[in-house]
Each structure stands twice: as structure tokens, then as C-alpha cells.
């Protein structure tokens, strides 16, 4: 699918073998038993999660099994910015988050990397600076943000809100909150507590302010809960963890302890029951219909172009926005280098070199060094017929994107062996492909041998392999004879598979049921793709501990051989069936 | 009726009415004094959030799971590090790069045969008969792998998980999710908290009526002192809404094409994008328009466009780049409010024509309020939290609140409805009278009730003597305890904004508050969900501080665990 035809996917069956709960186990065992003789269905939505190109798979030599991204455990080795290739220490990742804190930003419209440009027209590239997208030309000018320096963009941006207003730091937020609280309580104390005009402390002072930002509210809520919890648990003020004077609450508590001049409602005497937030500075936001009305007006006036697509919103740090003017440049996400371990035996399967710029691996146990590679390609149509007199004429390219329904077509299944031992191969496939469009499939020679992956030198030296005469498997009627391989080389063998592509629309009398409603329906995405599940079983004899050959100690294992067997499902994508 | 006044009595009266049949130990959970839990260490970061983080040994990852999204991030941060969806592109095979193909980007995606609207975009659905749990596991596992590898970027230290889940999630679905988190992501323990409670926390409240307009259903949950006390649902939610939008767009596109060409069938993405970009909702209920502004109006057709008398009629041009050929259509702005109107409020249908699971939102909310005990209702009606993806639709919150207000005005909280028989009604009146008398006697010169009268007189339907009395009582108590009077607001319809369940979970984890349901890895791996205590809630006595029965703060191992609301 979406890979160029033809292609092969390999299935890792870990998804039904590494489950955890007992509740599930029983049902899974039943399901597995049932599945025993069921073929792999590449149309099932689950198959998308277990099929991988061979290059994506690792191999655990201890478990003697394929390992897919799902059955490995990953460990982060280091963090770096993919844009500036700066390595970020883990402590910084922890404190500053998962994004580059230098000058690396992506465009919030098109995600291209942005550049720092000068708005200075006098040619010396002086301030002010902006972040601009070289691809779609969006820039921070559109959200009213300019920078004084061309370096340290992150720290500058963190302090400027869209439109140019400063964003308060955490400390400033806390201070402002305290100031307002103070103001509120003074006002309250100045009046009769039960007077008519009594209002929540916030409302008069905050009525004219713009609505608080998401971060403001969150910060207010956090402070409110912290204060509530602390008010409820007046612990020993000298408790060792709690004495830091930087914490305002601890400070207040100590002040209370030494001066008993505190307010008439002394909270410390008996913990007040926890209560809800009472005002904006405590994080309470009462629904305000005017915000709704303003948004509606704005959509009406500015239309589609002023609004954001779901994808654009989701890439924002704060996705709860609606308009283009709310966008922020997106700091580049850091990447990691990770090692991979086998989930069941914990052996390391892959480990990259730690240098950021290196793409090499210290360890990488690829499945393609352990698992035969299966591939499919069209058999040149001439081959099934007597060879044409002049071989010089160019054959037209086989069109994998237009297979002909109902016409038997021959393909070659090519199997190459990466192992140092010869293997016996058994292939199996369902006689008709699963799915709505049923194609008939026959492997003409399902059992065969493939030579060992000996050195090329050995190959050259031993000429024992006699080339197969292709003519010999085509019988007198020009038919390909079953049970014979097509061709063979040093460590590969190819066999013929006959495919009769199915019909996209049901044809009466061709095996498919034409039942009214169903027959009328259009085909879904990829239903015209011809994919064949092929079960591959290999058997071979290998040296015991063959994997440890590299360790140099071959004592005792010399000459000792063991029989081994591996089996797995593959899916070969043959092509697309042409409509008629 | 016992005497009133004193903080203990109030909480007792609240919990008595909430508790229902079985008394729960958790009702007593307000044990104040305890050894201090370790200090909150303050951190500064780009995400600049207040407070602190956990000790290193119990660092948390905060996850929220919904039927179409997973959000994940860290405690104390105001927004999640990632919000992952389950679209078609998320479900492709490895090595399938077609989404990057520019040509493919312009193709409209077809719905698979036999699949419901948007089914491909769901992580799960509650109707288990239609769920392949294996596929749920596949999808969830892939999304979590993306979250951990691309966004969390953690070191190798295992992280505990605070998991926000919808209440009443079926156990097999929970097992599937827990399997992945314990199995593939090695979580040492997972704390479960229910989304409505967390939405309440993220609104700064302790009690609220949480209206979560989700994908397949809208869930109304009454939360009292951090505990779910009542729940109602309706299928009027995002799915219906986006289907209505698709119908509207298909009709508009049909006008656009020449005869003979195939009928347009917009995809889920297209409908969803139009809805989130330019969809809206009229904020005034029709009943108000009729009775208050246009009492003499008779023509129903004109009335539809009552607010749209501007000329030229405002319109919006919507591009359809995935149409063949790409096109754009211009639709009247007013029409973009219709899908919300029909799908969520169903104005043209009589109430008795609805099944129980398809009540319009305002009726659902009204009924939920009606079935609450009086004192809880009083608090909840002034703390209506509207959340969920669709709640961001401009005008919707205002509209829902106005509709509920109109219903209350029209119907009040007529006890006859809730008590049924005439004799019960008489008893009720008598009881009320005694309560009021008792209250007046106790509070004498305080005159609290007057001081708390809202500026505008209450509409007749809202003037409920019993609730006035409780208002006064609670307000007075609150004042005595030093709580600002706004903490006791009640009896009127009021909406309160929430930062959402994820932010609530982030706050809870930041303050080191523990939930009732905490599952240790080893126990889960041995017994699965069956290992949970049969009791709905275990004793919270050995636990330390608490913010209320639903959430408990403190450290220490638990001898047994329970599934709480999910039991
Ligand atoms: Zn696997
Ligand atoms: Zn960078
Ligand atoms: Zn751009
Ligand atoms: Zn292994």
C-alpha cells in the first residue's frame, strides 16, 4: 500500500503473545487456538499494526524471533535538536521541556523551519528582528512580535505575548496575585463583612481587564490549591523540608508564629475547611457570554481564512485557540537517540553511536540478516511462451497498477537466504485472497531449497550449481509444470506463482455472489490492491551456539548441529487491479 | 429535622443526601492533622507553571483518555505535551508514506463500507459489541509509543501514571488500556481519576454539574464534594453534530455541481474542519425570542433568521481542496449554526418523542438537576461546567445556559413533579416551613439571607423558599469560616469555565493529591482488574489529608485497592 508495487511486508506476531492480564489470557488462548489454521488477513484493520517492511525489523538471537517496534523496550541515550544538532543534557530536558531553547522554530502555518530576519532597512541587519518562514512567508510580524536581539529567541519569545505585551514570569504572577489578594482583603476589612455591597474581592478591580490567559488561570488555580492544602495542614513550621524562605507560605507561617498581630480572622487556630475558588485570582472563571459573541462576530467578519485548521491547532503548545492571530511559532521538538532491547529477554538489539552527528550503530541486529527475503515480480510474459526469435526487442514494462481481472498472470516469488546454512522452505497461501475482491492464487512449487549465503568467493570456486534450463519447466503445451522451481542462484531460489486477479465489480457466474445492495457499493480505499498473504516456514541445521561464533570459543560446539525452524507470515503486494 | 449550623452539620447534611443507600467510610475523610508530606519543590521551566513537582521517586505522567483523543504530559504544566488523535493516517502501516504524497493530499477519503460516521477516528466506543479490543490495544499502544518517544522524551526511570478516564468505562476496555500502560510502558502504578471530577478541580470548584459534550454522547455528571452523585447521558453530541454538518455541506455542494456528475459526499475530516473553524451556535434560545422579543410573531420561517436580518446576508466561503475538482462554496453564515441547533437542541420535536438516550442537552441538564437532592442542586445549578471538544463551538455554552435558565423559569423545581403524590407534597410544605422557622430562630439578628440576595430579584420560577433558606444557612457558615461569600453562591443558573480534565489531572498530580483508585503494577499483572477490592471504596482512614472523599492527599502504601466509580 502506497509503496511502489511490488512489495513485501513481514508480520510480527508479538501483539497476541505478550499480553499481560490473566483476564485476557484465557480468551486469547481460545482465539489463538481458533486462529491456528486461519490465514493472515492483510485487510483486517489490525494487520496495519503488525506488518512491517523487513528493513524495520530487528532480530533477537537469544529468542530467535523477529522483533518489531512493539516488542522492544526503548531507552533514551541522549537528546538533541534535529535542527541545530545541539545535544541537550537530560537535566535541561527535565527543566526546560522537550523543545529546543535556542533559535529553532517551526512555522505554525506550514511547519517549515523558520529563520531569524532583521527588519532593519539600513543594511546592517540591526534590530528589530523577526522569525519568518522562508516557505510560506508567515512571520511573527503577523502576531505583533519583534525581537531586540537575534539570539536567545526562546527567552525573548517566552516573555512577549501576541501583540507585544509582556508575559509575566511565574514570580511576577505570584507577586501580582498576592497584591490583589492583599487589596481584596483590605477592602473587605474596611467594610462591614456582611454589608450589602459586599462582592467577591476580585470583581471590581478585574472587570475591565482582558480575560485571563489559559496559563494565568492555571497558575492561579495551582496557587489556590497549594494555599488551601497548606492552610489545612499547619505542620510544624520547623519541619526540615519546609523551612525554605523562598516559599511565601512558609514565610507567612513563620511571621504568624512570632507576631500575634495578625488579622482578626486568624486562620491558623483551627484549619478552615477547604473551600472552592472564589475569584479570578484563585482561578475561578465565570462563563462570560460576551466572549462567545465576540468569537461569532469575528468569524462572521473575517471568515474561513482567519481560522485555524485542526492540524494547526494541535501543533501549538496551547491548542485551545481559534484564530490565526493566536498562533505562536513552534519551538522545534527535540529528538532522541535510543537503544532497543528485546522485551522478553532484555538483550540489546540496537544501540546507536552516541555522537549526535553519527548515523552509525554500535549494535544493530537486523532481521534481514536472519530472515530470508521474499520478493515478488512479474514473470516476463515471453518466458511462458517459446522464446521469441529476436530477443533484442524491448519488452514493454509490466504495469503493476493495472492487473487484468480474470486473466491468469504469472509472477516469480524470489527467496534469498542470508544465513550461512542452506534452508528448506515451505510456502503456503490461501487459494483465494481474503477481502471483497477475491483473487485466486497458486504457488506452483511450494517446497524448495535455498543455498547457503556463503562467501562470494566460495560461490566462484564451487561451480557445482548447474543453471536450470528454464525451458525444462515449461511442458509441451507451453504450461508451467507444477513442482519445479523456476531458477536458482548461490543463495536464492525463485518459484512461479499463478494469480488470477479478481473482479472489482461482481460478475455473475464467477464465483462471487451478486447480492443487490452489497454489489452496488463502491470499493473502499485500497480494496483494488491485490495483496497475497504468504506463510513462510524455513527449516535448517545450524551450529549450536552459532550466534556466539564471534566470541571465538568454539570448543565443544564443533560439529554439533541442531535443527532449527522459523515460521512467519508475509504479505506480498502484487499490484492494483484495473477497473473494467 | 435536626438543628442546623456548625460546619460538621453541614457536611453531614450534604453527605447524607448524597450518599444514597450505602453509607461510606469515605464520607468521614476530612481528617485534618497529619505528618507533613515532603515539600513541593519549585521548578522553573519554559512551561512556567507554579508550585513544584514530585519527589523524583514518584514522578508522574499525566494522561487523559477520551474516545477520540489521548492527551499526555507532566504534572504542573498547564497544557499537555501532546494531544494525539486516531485518524486514518495514524492507522497506516509502517513504511506507508502516502500521506506525504501531494497528490494523495488532494484526494477525498472514503468511508469504509458498513462503518458509522467517524468510526475510523475513534479509539474505542462504549458499545462493546462493536469494539475489537485488539484493535483498541493496537491503536492505543501506537499512540502511547508516539507520546513517549516523540513528546515525553523521558529517561529510563519508570514513571507512575495519573490516568483521567470517563466514569463507567467498561472493565474490558479498562483492562486493555491498563495492559498497554503496565506492559509496554512499564508504569509502576496507575492512579485513576474520573474526568468529571478533574474538570471540577480545573474549574476551582468542589461541586459542579459537569456537562461533557463528548464524541458519541454527552455525559452530565453531578459532582458534589469531588464525588459523582448523579449521571445522565444522551447521544446528542459531537458525532451527530458533525454528521449534520456533513449533510449541510453535501447539500451545498450538490447545488454547486452540474447535473450528471457524481454527488458529493464530504469526508469526516472535511466536515470536522468546517465545524471547528466556522461552525457556531445561536446563543439565544428560541423560546426567549418568541416570548420576550417577538411575542406576536407567527411566521415560523421568518423566525429562523430572526437575528440574521443584516443585509447583505453575511456568508462564509469554504474551500474544498479534496473535492474533484477542487472547489469552494459560499454558504450563508446563519446556516452554519443550524447543525448545532438540530443536533443538540432539536427544537422542532416534542419532548415526548425522544427516547431516553436522545434528550436534547438542556432537557438532560434540567432533569439531572431536578433529580438531585435540594442542597446539592442548589450548588450544582450555579456551577455548570460545560466541557468536551464541542463545547468550544462559539455560542454553545451561552446557549445551553440560556436554555436551561428558560426551562427552569418555565417549570421551576415543582416538588409535585419530584414527589409525585399529593400527600407527599403536603408533607413537603410542612417540612419546609419547619426548616425555615428553625433557621430564623437560630440565626436571629444575623440577617444573612438579605445580604445574599442577588441584585436582581429572582424570577418567579426560581423563588423557592426552601432553597432560600439553605442559601442563607450555607452563606452564613461560609462567612464564619472565612470563606468569601461567592463560595456559597447557589440557586441561580451560572456557568463556570474549566481548563478541562487534563489540566485538572495536572493540578492534582502537582499538589500530590492521591485518588481513591490506585493500581500497583505487580498486583495488576497477577490478578488483573479482578484483584480489586469488591467494596466500592476502601477506608480512607489510613490515608492522610484529603480534599474531600474523592481525592485524598498523602503518601503511604495501601493494603488493598478498589475500582471506585469504575467498580
Ligand atoms: Zn513484535
Ligand atoms: Zn535547535
Ligand atoms: Zn510557513
Ligand atoms: Zn530476546
Automatic annotation (TrEMBL), chain A:
Residues 170-217 have a biased composition (Basic and acidic residues). Its main location: cytoplasm. InterPro entries: DCTN4. It is found in: Cytoplasm, Cytoskeleton, Microtubule organizing center, Centrosome; Cytoplasm, Cytoskeleton, Stress fiber; Cytoplasm, Myofibril. Residues 158-219 are annotated as: Disordered. PANTHER family: DYNACTIN P62 SUBUNIT (PTHR13034), DYNACTIN SUBUNIT 4 (PTHR13034:SF2). This is Dynactin subunit 4.
From TrEMBL, chain B:
This is Actin-like ATPase domain-containing protein. InterPro entries: Actin, ATPase_NBD. Residues 1-10 have a biased composition (Basic and acidic residues). Pfam families: Actin (PF00022). Residues 1-47 are annotated as: Disordered. PANTHER family: ACTIN. Belongs to the actin family.
Amino acid at each position: 500500500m502506497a509503496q511502489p508495487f511490488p512489495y513485501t511486508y513481514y508480520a510480527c506476531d508479538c501483539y497476541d503473545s505478550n499480553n499481560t492480564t490473566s483476564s485476557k489470557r484465557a480468551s486469547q488462548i481460545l482465539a489463538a487456538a481458533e486462529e491456528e489454521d486461519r490465514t493472515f488477513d492483510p485487510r483486517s484493520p489490525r494487520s496495519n499494526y503488525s506488518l512491517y517492511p523487513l528493513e524495520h525489523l530487528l532480530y533477537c538471537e537469544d529468542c530467535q524471533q523477529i522483533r518489531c517496534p512493539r516488542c522492544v523496550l526503548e531507552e533514551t541515550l541522549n537528546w538533541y535538536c534535529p535542527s541545530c544538532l545541539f545535544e541537550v543534557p537530560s537535566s535541561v530536558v527535565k527543566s526546560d521541556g522537550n523543545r529546543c531553547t535556542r533559535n529553532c522554530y517551526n512555522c505554525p502555518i506550514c511547519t517549515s523551519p523558520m529563520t531569524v530576519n532583521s527588519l532593519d532597512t539600513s543594511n546592517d541587519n540591526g534590530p528589530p528582528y523577526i522569525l519568518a518562514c522562508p516557505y510560506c512567508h508567515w512571520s511573527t510580524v503577523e502576531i505583533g512580535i519583534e525581537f531586540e536581539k537575534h539570539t536567545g529567541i526562546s527567552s525573548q519569545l517566552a516573555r512577549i505575548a501576541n501583540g507585544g505585551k509582556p508575559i509575566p514570569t511565574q514570580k511576577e504572577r505570584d507577586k501580582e496575585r498576592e497584591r490583589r489578594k492583599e487589596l481584596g482583603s483590605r477592602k473587605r476589612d474596611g467594610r462591614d463583612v456582611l454589608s450589602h455591597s459586599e462582592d467577591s474581592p476580585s470583581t471590581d478591580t478585574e472587570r475591565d481587564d482582558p480575560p485571563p490567559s489559559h496559563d494565568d488561570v492555571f497558575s492561579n488555580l495551582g496557587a489556590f490549591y497549594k494555599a488551601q492544602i497548606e492552610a489545612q495542614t499547619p505542620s510544624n513550621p520547623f519541619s526540615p523540608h519546609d523551612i525554605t524562605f523562598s516559599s511565601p507560605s512558609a514565610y507567612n507561617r513563620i511571621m504568624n508564629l512570632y507576631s500575634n498581630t495578625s488579622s482578626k480572622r486568624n486562620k491558623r487556630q483551627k484549619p478552615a475547611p477547604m473551600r472552592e475558588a472564589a475569584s479570578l485570582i484563585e482561578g475561578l472563571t465565570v462563563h462570560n457570554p460576551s466572549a462567545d459573541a465576540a468569537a461569532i462576530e469575528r468569524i462572521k467578519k473575517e471568515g474561513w481564512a482567519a481560522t485555524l485548521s485542526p492540524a494547526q491547532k494541535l501543533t501549538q503548545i496551547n491548542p485551545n485557540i481559534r484564530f490565526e492571530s493566536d498562533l505562536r511559532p513552534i519551538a522545534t521538538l527535540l529528538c532522541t537517540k535510543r537503544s532497543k532491547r528485546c522485551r522478553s529477554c532484555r538483550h540489546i538489539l540496537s544501540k546507536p553511536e552516541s555522537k549526535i552527528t553519527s548515523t552509525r550503530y554500535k549494535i544493530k541486529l537486523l532481521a534481514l540478516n536472519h530472515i530470508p527475503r521474499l520478493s515478488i515480480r512479474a514473470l516476463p510474459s515471453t518466458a511462458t511462451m517459446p522464446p521469441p526469435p529476436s530477443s533484442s526487442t524491448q519488452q514493454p514494462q509490466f504495469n503493476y497498477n493495472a492487473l487484468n481481472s480474470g486473466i491468469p498472470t504469472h509472477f516469480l516469488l524470489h527467496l534469498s537466504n542470508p544465513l550461512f546454512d542452506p534452508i528448506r522452505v515451505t510456502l503456503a497461501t490461501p487459494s483465494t485472497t481474503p477481502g471483497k475482491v477475491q483473487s485466486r492464487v497458486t504457488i506452483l512449487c511450494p517446497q524448495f531449497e535455498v543455498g547457503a549465503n556463503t562467501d562470494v568467493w566460495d560461490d566462484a570456486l564451487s561451480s557445482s550449481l548447474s543453471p536450470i534450463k528454464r525451458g525444462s519447466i515449461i511442458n509441451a503445451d507451453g504450461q508451467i509444470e507444477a513442482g519445479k522451481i523456476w531458477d536458482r542462484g548461490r543463495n536464492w531460489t525463485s518459484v512461479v506463482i499463478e494469480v488470477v486477479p479478481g473482479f472489482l465489480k461482481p460478475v455473475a457466474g464467477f464465483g462471487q455472489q451478486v447480492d443487490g445492495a452489497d454489489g452496488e457499493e463502491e470499493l473502499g480505499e485500497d480494496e483494488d490492491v491485490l495483496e497475497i498473504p504468504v506463510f513462510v516456514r524455513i527449516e535448517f541445521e545450524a551450529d549450536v551456539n552459532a550466534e556466539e561464533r564471534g566470541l571465538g570459543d568454539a570448543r565443544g560446539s564443533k560439529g554439533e548441529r541442531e535443527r532449527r525452524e522459523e515460521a512467519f507470515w508475509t504479505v506480498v503486494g502484487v499490484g492494483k487491479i484495473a477497473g473494467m | 429535622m435536626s438543628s442546623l449550623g456548625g460546619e460538621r452539620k453541614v457536611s453531614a447534611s450534604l453527605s447524607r443526601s448524597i450518599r444514597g443507600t450505602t453509607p461510606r467510610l469515605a464520607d468521614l475523610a476530612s481528617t485534618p492533622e497529619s505528618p507533613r508530606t515532603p515539600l513541593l519543590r519549585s521548578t522553573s521551566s519554559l512551561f512556567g507553571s507554579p508550585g513544584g513537582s514530585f519527589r523524583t521517586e514518584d514522578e508522574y505522567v499525566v494522561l487523559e483518555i477520551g474516545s477520540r483523543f489521548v492527551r499526555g504530559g507532566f504534572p504542573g504544566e498547564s497544557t499537555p505535551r501532546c494531544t494525539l488523535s486516531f485518524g486514518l493516517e495514524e492507522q497506516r502501516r509502517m513504511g506507508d508514506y502516502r500521506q506525504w504524497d501531494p497528490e494523495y493530499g488532494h484526494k477525498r477519503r472514503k468511508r469504509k463500507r458498513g462503518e458509522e460516521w467517524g468510526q475510523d477516528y475513534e479509539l474505542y466506543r462504549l458499545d462493546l459489541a462493536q469494539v475489537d479490543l485488539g484493535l483498541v490495544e493496537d491503536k492505543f499502544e501506537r499512540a502511547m509509543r508516539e507520546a513517549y518517544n516523540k513528546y515525553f522524551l523521558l529517561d529510563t526511570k519508570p514513571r507512575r501514571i495519573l490516568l483521567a478516564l470517563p466514569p463507567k468505562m467498561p472493565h474490558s476496555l479498562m483492562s486493555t488500556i491498563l495492559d498497554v500502560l503496565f506492559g509496554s510502558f512499564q508504569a509502576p502504578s496507575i492512579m485513576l481519576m474520573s474526568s468529571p471530577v478533574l474538570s471540577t478541580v480545573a474549574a476551582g470548584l468542589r461541586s459542579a454539574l459537569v456537562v461533557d459534550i463528548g464524541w458519541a454522547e454527552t455525559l452530565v455528571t453531578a459532582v458534589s464534594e469531588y464525588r459523582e452523585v448523579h449521571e445522565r447521558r444522551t447521544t446528542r453530541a459531537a458525532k451527530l453534530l458533525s454528521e449534520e454538518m456533513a449533510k449541510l455541506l453535501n447539500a451545498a455542494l450538490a447545488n454547486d455541481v452540474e447535473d450528471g456528475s457524481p454527488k458529493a459526499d464530504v469526508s469526516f475530516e472535511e466536515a470536522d474542519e468546517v465545524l471547528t473553524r466556522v461552525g457556531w451556535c445561536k446563543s439565544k434560545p428560541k423560546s426567549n425570542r418568541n416570548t420576550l422579543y417577538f411575542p406576536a410573531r407567527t411566521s415560523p420561517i421568518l423566525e429562523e433568521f430572526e437575528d440574521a436580518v443584516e443585509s447583505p446576508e453575511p456568508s462564509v466561503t469554504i474551500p474544498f481542496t479534496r473535492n474533484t475538482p477542487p472547489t469552494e462554496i459560499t454558504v450563508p453564515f446563519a446556516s452554519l449554526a443550524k447543525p448545532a441547533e438540530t443536533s443538540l437542541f432539536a427544537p422542532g420535536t416534542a419532548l415526548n418523542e425522544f427516547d431516553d438516550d436522545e434528550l436534547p442537552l438542556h432537557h438532560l441538564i434540567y432533569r439531572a438537576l431536578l433529580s438531585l437532592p435540594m442542597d446539592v442542586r442548589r450548588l450544582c445549578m450555579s456551577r455548570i461546567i460545560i466541557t468536551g471538544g464541542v463545547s468550544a463551538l462559539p455560542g454553545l455554552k451561552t446557549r445551553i445556559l440560556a436554555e436551561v435558565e428558560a426551562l427552569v423559569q418555565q417549570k421551576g423545581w415543582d416538588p409535585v413533579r419530584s414527589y409525585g403524590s399529593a400527600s407527599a407534597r403536603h408533607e413537603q410544605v410542612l417540612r419546609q416551613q419547619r426548616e425555615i422557622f428553625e433557621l430564623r430562630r437560630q440565626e436571629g439578628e444575623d440577617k444573612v439571607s438579605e445580604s445574599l440576595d442577588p441584585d436582581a430579584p429572582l424570577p418567579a420560577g426560581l423563588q423557592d423558599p426552601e432553597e432560600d433558606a439553605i442559601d442563607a444557612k450555607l452563606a452564613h457558615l461560609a462567612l464564619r469560616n472565612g470563606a468569601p461569600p461567592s463560595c456559597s453562591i447557589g440557586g441561580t443558573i451560572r456557568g463556570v469555565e474549566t481548563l478541562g480534565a487534563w489540566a485538572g489531572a495536572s493540578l492534582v498530580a502537582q499538589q500530590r493529591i492521591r485518588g481513591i483508585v490506585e493500581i500497583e503494577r505487580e498486583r495488576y499483572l497477577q490478578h488483573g482488574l479482578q484483584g480489586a477490592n469488591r467494596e466500592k471504596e476502601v477506608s480512607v482512614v489510613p490515608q492522610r489529608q484529603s480534599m474531600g472523599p474523592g481525592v485524598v492527599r498523602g503518601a503511604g502504601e495501601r493494603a488493598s485497592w478498589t475500582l471506585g466509580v469504575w467498580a
